[in-house]
Amino acid sequence: MPSDGGAQQRVGEHFREVLPKRGLLFAEAQPQTVLCKPKLLPLKSVTLQKLEDMQSEAKEKAKEQMREKVEEEAREEARARDPNNVVSESVSFE
């Protein structure tokens, strides 16, 4: 009974490697996974952050303007109620 080593030699005898003397030799390339460093992505984009900042600034400005308006109205009411504050207008027609 032949051993496994003999069977491998017989298979090798039937097929022999042939390299061309002329022409091109082609080999299939097996794609391999290329690992690179992981990239950390921000939770918010720069544009989104800028928009949020602009919105918060606009809200603060609107609150400030409303506060100023309320204060001005309060001052005008106080002037209207004050009896010592008499505003007289005179118009002359010549």
Description:
This protein is mainly α and 94 residues long. It has helices at 4-14, 46-81. The N and C termini lie far apart (144 Å). 0% of the residues are buried. The model has no long low-confidence stretch (mean pLDDT 79).
Keywords:
single chain, 94 residues, mainly alpha, 2 helices, rod-shaped
Number of helices: 2
* Rg over C-alpha atoms, rounded to the nearest angstrom: 46 Å
Distance between the termini: 144 Å
Q: pLDDT under 50 segments (min length 5)?
A: none
Mean pLDDT: 79
Alpha-beta content class: mainly alpha
In short:
This protein is mainly alpha-helical. The chain has 2 helices and no strands.
Topology:
Elements: H1 4-14, H2 46-81
